[in-house]
Give the backbone structure.
Amino acid sequence: MTETTFEPTYSLEANEPHRRRAWLSLRTLLVLMVLLAAVPLAVVELVSNGAEQRLQHERSRDELDALARALAGQHRARLNGIGQFLVAVSQAPPVVGQDREGCARYFSRLRALEPGVLNIGLIGTDGRLVCEATGNGQGVYLGDREYFREALRNGQPVFGAYQIGRITGRPSVVLARPVLTDSGRVAAIVYAALDLAVLTGDVGGQRAPPGIRAHLVDAAGVVLGTSGVGTAPIGEPLADLVLRQAVLDRRSGRIDGPPGEEPARLRTLQPVDVGGRSVMLVAATVAMEDVIAPLQRSLFARLAGILAIVVAIAALVWLLGQRLILRPVERLVTGMRRVESGDHARALDQPPTPLRELGDLQRSLSSLVITLEAQRFERDQALGALSDREARYRELFKANPQVMFVYDVHSLRLLAANEAAAVYYGYTRDDMLKKGLADIWPGCTAVGSQPGGRVPVVVSVWHPTGPVSHRLGNGEIRQVEVLASSILFEGLPAALVMVTDVTERLAAQAREREGAQRLEQRVADRTRELELSLRELEAFSYSVSHDLRNPLGAVGMFGQMLQAHLGEGADEQVKTYLARIEQGVRGMERLIDDLLTLAKVARAPLTLEPVDLTALCRDVVNELRQADPHREVDVSLEEDLHCTGDAGLLRQMLVNLLGNAWKFTARTPQPRICVGRELGAASTAAAFFVQDNGAGFDMKFAGRLFLPFERLHGDHDFPGTGIGLATVQRIVARHGGCIWAEAALERGATFHVELGTRQPG
């Protein structure tokens, strides 16, 4: 066996330029890794801060809504209290009697009890002040005030807008209520002027987060009370245009600013309802920068702390990396180079290192030398074992009963052959190894010369999959099948071939093919004979029809002439005979027509097209009604019955099926015929049924139903020829379908039809 040697495809010297391009030291890499480790921390802080900002946004919005609702509830309670106060005042005797002095004293005492009320007064229907609590407004005209006009007009409590009191000279809002007589007429108007300074104190009395502005405004957006940063002057419109527009639009709840608003703000409006009416609103707002400013300051502080820690760690890694990592690694590199040069003893001379991983690497370097020596010894042992296995495989190859041989894919020279091959081809093993592949396989060619090289190459070998001709030593040609695989044999690209003789099998297959061809020829001959018979039968049918029609026509004509000749003088027996003759002639003519129809159905070419079965059924039923106008039959036709077929043949099928249903319901008191869609049929079929409630038939005779000339009823009961259903069955068969019937005596029959379940013919 030829010995091969290992030759590397690259060298360390060739790779040296790539090694010199390195610019990054291990110590620098460690520092960079420390710095990169800080990036996820910074990202986490940024993401966490973003989540905190979103949470703080929702929290601030909730706090803003809660503050507005609390203020609205506080003012609602105050205004409702004053409203109840005015109810009691309007019913007091000095007020009802419009007693000026008594009324003034009464109002003065009440004003002292309500510090938030600037003044209490009574206005007559003429708009003049009757009395008030301060004693300074005698005869003052208040008829031009809007709250007075509305209360006088509606007779309901009224909450006035912002005003400067004519008596007190101070900003206020008025709650007015009519004083009614027993008849329900407005006799006067009692009012209470509320001190806006007290309302402002109520707005500011709630504990609110920093940066929040709260305003109490009327329905026109005028400020009645305010607190927080940037307070607005009382009596002026809201400075926030978004909130002012929301007040004018009668909106409430959370108010969104315009897209891209700078600076962004949170806003809310909460109504203050009195008696089911919104008389003022609490408007609260806060700037987003005030909400997130503490979070941003906290973020900057945390990022600065992370940066300081990372810089300190990087400096420490830079100092320790030189001593703990770089120097031990340099010593290991020196040891590897000694191993490379063969100086194994000095390669093991390494001082200890404080790092466990580098110590493991030193121990690995020390065991490398031992491993190399062990591998050399094992290689020698493996080569010896390989020689032994090759010897055993050669013996198995020689003793295998399967015909096997090996040949050179370039020269086609036989390199090896087992005993089975020598026996099969009729040579001795030594003689066979002197042969080439062309000696046993005539016509084979080599794969071509292979470019030279130091290492042998396995060449892919192609062999035919079918039988080929091999020549034996005695010149006999045998048919064989070959199975080849590419191998290396003694350093040469070769092919291992296994041969199986298939001569007898191919002969048997040839005999089978010859028998099949003879059978096909017999089938073709029989088909031609059948077609000839069908054509002769068709010609016979037309001939018989023609030969029968002429004498039948003569019989019918002479019978009519005889009847006309005898006239009314014929006796009843003669008339009966003549009627029987005419009836027999008509029956024979119908039979001939049915036979011709049956023959035409069997041979007529099919013209396949979309057919509306419902429309065909409707035409046939109309013809039946015209032919028998005195009958009343209940006919039900399902809509949208469609199929693909020959329209003429399908019409003939429906004429027979519906004609039978019409005929066999003649003796039924209430005849019914139904045509509907069949449920549960194959998806490719057009299925329907024709059902009647007529005479029906016994199911034990169902096998005779579609046979020609077979009739299940007597001609005296229901006339017919017995050809109609046979014609229907052939039409259905030519459309690739099937037909069957279900019936019971005197309970009607149902004919089921499926078209298109197989290939039409």
Q: What stands out?
A: The longest helix spans residues 26-90. Residues 1-12, 447-459 have pLDDT under 50 and may be disordered.
